[in-house]
Amino acid sequence: MTADDATTLGGIGSRELAVAAALALAVVVATAAFPMIVDARAAYEIPVEQQSSAGDLADPTGDAWQSVETVDVPMSSSGAAVPGGSDAAVDSASVAAARTDERLYLRLSWSDASANTSTDSLRAFADSTAVQLPVSSEERPPIAMGSTDNRVNVWYWNGADGTESLLAGGAGSTTQIPESAVETNAAHSGDRWTVVFSRPLASDRANVTDIAPNEDVNAAFAVWQGANEERSGQKAVSEWYYLSLDPDDGGAPYETVLWALAGIAVVFTTFVTVEGIRRTRGE
After folding, report:
1. Are 64 and 130 in the same domain?
2. Which domain holds residue 32?
3. pLDDT tens figures, 52-107
4. Torsion angle, CA of 240/58/229/241, rounded to 10 degrees?
5. Residue 98, CB half-sphere, CA atoms under 13 Å: how many?
6. DSSP label at 60?
7. b/e string for 154-177 if b means 16 or more Cβ within 10 A?
8. Which pLDDT value is given to residue 283?
9. Nearest to residue 77, comparing CAs of 67, 86, 89, 68?
10. Is the same domain home to 220 and 83?
């Protein structure tokens, strides 16, 4: 290549090369950004481990939980307009999930130095926890107990009164679901509560969450600490998370986009290079 050819290539192909460089830079930026997006998505994921049999999953301290990944879920005061609504004692809960072919198990654990299981006196309040699931998988409901047109199921355990399954369509609208299939087992050891919720995956009842074994399910969590006189709207709550039930779920969509961008950049750069060489040869 002569000096004139180099000048011609630089003059004729400068715009194309600049565009190629910009696209290449975009790929570099995407390469750095997409793992961050995947990580952000994973930050709200609660993996659900499939096990061949229930074993002792219903036991809060069962050995079957040793292999199940636990996710630390940050919690904050609900901010509800009730006395103490912005003053919750629990700032995080550990959540783990497992399933068999027929049943889902959710294990919640949180720090609490005292086991409050009595409401016998005027100022006695029991420790409690709850799991909130959308009735419909089509749309994520408002976090505060859903809405009239996007309801939620609430699995509720109370240290004094046991277990309830509730339907809610907005704050203050809870009603009890009769003959609930939700079961719980709880244990307090040292300075921690551990509660296991379980329920059959499938449900053919109206307004009861149907948990498909190959679809992710949104879930949110709440904890009441009795020693802090927490009850009703005074509680610690999480944001929406999702139970990762889909075995094919993960970062694949992001990787696909990334590789598509890289492919476009390679094709475009090749075209510009070939076109520049063709022009310098006078073709």
Report:
1. yes
2. 3-39+251-280
3. 999 999 999 999 999 999 999 999 999 876 776 788 999 999 999 999 999 999 99
4. -10
5. 23
6. T
7. bbbbbbeeebbbbbbbbeeebeeb
8. 52
9. 86
10. yes
